[in-house]
Structure formats: C-alpha cells, structure tokens
Amino acid sequence: MEFAKTIHGAGTDLLNLISDILDLSKIESGTVTVECEDLLFTHLRETIERNFRHEAEGRKLSFTADFDSRLGRAITTDSKRLLQVLKNLLSNAFKFTDRGGVRLHVGIAMGGWTSDHPTLTQAPSVVEFSVSDTGIGIPQEKQRIIFEAFQQADAGTARKYGGTGLGLAISRELAHLLGGEIRLSSIAGSGSTFTLYLPLTYTGPAYARAMTSGPAATAYQPVVTPVIVRQEETIPDDRENLNPGDAVLLIVEDDPHYGRILVNLARDRGFKVIHSRTGSDGLAMARKHRPTAVSLDVFLPDMLGWTVLNQLKRSPETRHIPVQILTIEDERQYGLERGAFSFVTKTVTTDRLEQAIDRLKDFTTSRTRRLLIVEDDPAEQMSVTELLGANDVKIDSAGSGAAALELMRQTAFDCVVLDLRLPDMSGFDLLAEVQKDPKLRDTPIIVFTGRELSEQEENELRKKAKSIVLKGVRSPERLLDETALFLHRVIADMPESKQHMIETLHESDEPLTGRKVLVVDDDIRNIFALNSLLERHNMQVITATNGQEAINLVESTDDLSLVLMDVMMPEMDGYETMRRIRSNHQFRMLPIIALTAKAMKGDREKCLEAGASDYVAKPVNTDQLLSLVRMWLHR
Fold it and tell me: What is the pLDDT of residues 568-601, one digit of tens each?
C-alpha cells in the first residue's frame, strides 16, 4: 500500500509538471488561441468559492471573495484562461499562508497597471482581480525572478511547499495573452498581493498579433531567437575491429578536441581505442569489451566521472582495469583514494599526455605486481604476507623507515602497506618523506595500524595515504580488498579463499546487520524509499525530517553507525547540519554520506568541506549506496 501510494503521488507530480511545461510551451510558441465569451461575475464568484472554501476550512484560514457592485454583469474574455490564472494565484496564496487568511477582490481598476501598457491604457474599462494573503511574503530582491520559469524565491521553497516554479510564469503569459498584466506587492513576512488587470472587453493580446488571419491571429507571438544546434562529432574508433589479446583503451570524454588527441596518442602507442561521450555508454562499453585500461574525464554530460569510477571499481569484472582520470588538480587525492591508477590535468602539454599513456601501457603489460610491507614485527610481517601473497604479487618487506625509503627509491612498487610504529621514525615521518619525492608521491600507501588516531593525525593521514585500515575483527578482509584495489589485481585470478573474502566484504549483509543508520530528508517519499532499502538489509533505521531533529538524534543515539544526509532542506540545510554535527569532537569519526540532487562542479567539494565522509548524487543508485555504506561501516 505504501509503495503504491508513493508511486501514485510521484506520478501525479510528474503529470502536473508535464502539463505545466506543455502549457508554457504552447503559449510561448504562439499556438494558444483566445476564445472569448461573456463570463458572468456571479458565475465566477460561485466557481471560486466552490473550489477554495473547503481549502480555507481545512487550513483553518479565513477566505472572502469580494466583488464590487459597480462591475456590471459580465466580463468578455477567455473564461477558461482567466480561471486558470485566478486558481493559480489563489492556490499559491493558500499554500504560503499558515495563519490569517486570503482575500479575493474584484472591482473596477482606477490605475495601478504599467503606464505605457499597449492595451490597458486604451481600454475604456479595466477590471482588477486582487489576491491578497497574510503569508510568508516575498523579499524585494526576489520579486522579479519568481515570474521566470522554474524560479522560486528560495532554494528550500520547492522542498517545503512543493511546486515547480512554473505557475506564475504561465499566469504572467496568460495575462499578456488576455490583453492584461499581473502586478505584485509584497513585504517579506507580512504577506503578498497579486493583482491581475484585464480589459473589461477583450480587444487583443498585450503583444503583437500574428500576421495571419483566423483564430490564431490573436495568439501571442514571442520574439524567436534562433538556437544553433551543434552536431555531435563522432570520433571513429576500433570497436568493430577488436581481437582477443588486443591492448584496448576506453576513452570516456565528451570534448571532441581532447577526444581526438587521446585517440591519436593511444593508437601511436599500440592501443586499439573505444570512444564514448557519456558515462552510461562508457560503463556499457567497459562491461562489454573489458578494455585493458580506461581514460576517464570527470565532467560528463550525464553523470560525474566519479560515479563511473565507483561503478567500475565496485564490479569484480572491471575492478582491476586501471583508470586514468582527467580533471583539475584539487581533485587528485579524491580520485587516487578511490582506486584511480593515475591523474592527469587537462591543461598539460601533449608530451605529458604521451607520458601518461605510456605509463598506462607499461602497467598493463603482463607482469607481476610489486608490494612493499613496512612492519618491524616479524610475526605481523609474516601474517600480512600470508594474507596478501599469491602468484600475481611479489612481496618485499622492510623493518624500518630508512629501509623502506631505500627500497622505494630502488624499486617501483605498485602499493605499500605501512605500520605507523617503526623503530627509527614514525609512519607520519615516512609519509612526509614520500610526499617530498615526485617519483614516490603517487605510490598508493595503505596505513595498517592498531593505534587510536587523534583527529589531527587522521586528517594528516587522509592527505598523504590512500587508505587507512584499523586493525580489528574485519581488518584482514579490508586490507586484502584495499591492496587488491590499488594493485589492480584480477579478482577471478586470485585464490578462491581470497575471492570469497572480498566477495563477503562487498556483498554480504553481515557488516550491515543490526547497525543503526539515521536517514535525514524532508521529503517523506525519499525517507520511505531509503528505509525500505536499508531494512531489507537488516539495518535499524531512524529518521529525521529537518536539520535540528537530526542533530538531536545524533546526540541522543549512543549506537548510531551511519548518517545519510539530504543536502537540500528548508531552514537548516544539510551543509549546516553536517557542520554542527562535526563541531562536536565526539562525532568526528561518524560516517556521514551526503545525498544531493545536484551533481555540478564544486558540489562534491562543498559536501566534503561541510563534513561529509562521502557523496552520492540523486537519483540514488541503490547498489552504489549499499557499496558505500558497507565501505564506511568497515572503516
């Protein structure tokens, strides 16, 4: 029943949105005709009161419909369109009013419309339809934009009150079509008055008439600005000419200039090439062709490259494929932490791009991976070697920081496992030395430690190491999984027992069972959907519909394991809620995954700066979300 109600409600919202878009499109394209008739004012009053009397009673608001006795018997206009405008204005008035009331006044206007209006200034008589309320009002600086399509006065308006931001845009255009206009008077916090001015007898639209005869002659003719549609450039690739054993580079890049450069450079270095413009197409190509390597741009037309990377690294079939990221410098650490092989900025020279592709080609040439274990305890060394060892990995060990640095400078290691307690220097000192050396700084280093980390120590490690695994009950599985990720090991080629350990880590509900998660979202449909998903995986779910309630629950719930935080909420948004939670030292380690409908450049950084542990864009991919939940609960 709940699922059916949720689906029906969302479907109704979508149908209303489509209807509004079609309405606005018809008006702007000049295909809406005006069908004039005499509309009795008594009939108009009855219709309005019948439609809104119950609304007023249900909201416990007063409602009056005041018609001036000097009006006469009727107005000559398009009754359907007039009622559409009035219903929209009245619906808004009730929606944004919590106390007080709403008033409709209809009378002969003595002025108030634009002084040079082309039809109202020439009309013998003008009628005003004023809708006044005692609601939230509209700030002065927002009063112009609310008449634009998809605009509302505040980012939280749609979430708190609903709506698409199209109603007033449609009403304004209909007013122009009927030969009139809408004026607004409002004070934030004190209420608003929308006044529709129309000629008592319709004489034509407020805009230029079409240069044709017939019913469409009175349609509004907008100024049409030609839009130049760019033909998407197709870059020829080798997808139809692939053979077993070919070195194949999948290039996911929507910029044709960069796409052509990368294709040519890759072919010069012996790769066959598959090119994709979008993330979804790139994922499909990766699953179908299993390329040798991937070059991935972060900003794609349909999704963030990070989403593509996460999905590639979540699947056992594609997890081992090295992914080269093309993006901006400040995202380097984020990409490398999530299993990216390398990182290239788009501003680099062709020589640097050549070097990056050479590095990919060298890495993908069949060879044994090199792993260094930095641990001074011989028993721990043996234990980790036994856990991670196999035919595809050669393991070296170092018992001190100095020995580790010497080995790293002599040998190109693909990954390093580092204990923080060393006899000659701390793990922090070793990481600092690695960061100073340009040849070593991109080597994936996994900190494997049993010591309790302070907030400052953890922040320092996050900047320099690719992963932190705390020794505990599930730490062997996590260490195996993290090293497999950074070594780009083919899961299917690993011993069965180790394949099972990784599969259990990623797919089993064991780490989720009984764990308590807080879902914060002001839309009850989202809460319902997330609750249903998490409860199917045996998690205990508690919910909050606003920021302050979330903070109270975090502070009062002792066994809370995770928070899913919606970003766009009215009053206190998710960013501010996360900042306040993180301001309490007690909750600095609490995993918080931000959920947001935005996926634009900078939004991920904004989430992370506010205190999010990770970030998922809506609509939420359930597999991706569960993968992140598992990952953070393991950590």
Answer: 887 788 999 999 999 998 898 899 999 876 555 5
| Domain spans of the chain, in order of start | 13-218, 239-364, 369-507, 516-634
Q: What is the DSSP letter of 338?
A: T
- Residue type at 136 in one-letter notation: I
pLDDT tens by residue, 413-469: 989 999 888 999 988 899 889 988 888 887 888 888 877 777 777 777 777 776 666
Cα gap 302→349, rounded to integer Å: 27
H or E element at residue 594: strand 592-596
Residue 120 phi, psi dihedral angles, 5° rounding = -65, -35
516-634 classified as CATH 1.10.10.10: no
Same fold yes or no, 239-364 and 516-634: yes
Record: fold of 369-507: Rossmann fold (3.40.50)
Q: What is the pTM of this model?
A: 0.54
Query: In terms of DSSP H, where are the helices of 365-450?
Result: 378-388, 401-410, 427-436
On average, the pLDDT of the chain sits at: 83
Q: Which residues pair with 593 in a beta bridge?
A: 564, 614
Cα separation, 323 vs 282, whole angstroms: 12
How many Cβ atoms from other residues are within 10 Å of residue 503's Cβ? 14
